[in-house]
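This part of the workshop introduces the protein records we will be handling. As an example, a complete record with its sequence and its C-alpha cells follows.
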Amino acid sequence: MDREKVLLLSRMDNVGDDERDRSVREGGAQRALLAVALLAIVLDLVKSLFLHQPNGDLMAVAFLGMGVFSGYQYRRARRRELLAAAIVWFVGSAWWTVGYLAAVGALPL
C-alpha cells in the first residue's frame, strides 16, 4: 500500500477526531471510573462497618462499570488481557449483586 493511500485511510478513520483527542477522552473516562470505584469502596465500607447495613450494591455498580470499560477497550484493541479483565469484572459484579440481594432478603440463600 502506498503512502498516500495509507494517509487517506487514516484521515477517513479519524474524521472529526484525532488520536490525541481520543486518548485524552479515554484516559479521562478511565480515571473517572476509577474514582467512582474508589468512592464505592469507601461508601461500602462505611455502610458495613459503621452503619451495619447490607453492603455490596455499590461494589456491584463499580465492578459493572469497570467491566463495561474493559469490554469496550477489548473491542477496540483486541487484546486478550482486556477480555480477561472484563470477564473478571463482570463476574465480580454478579457476585456482589447476588451477595447484596441475599443480604436484603431478596434471594433465599
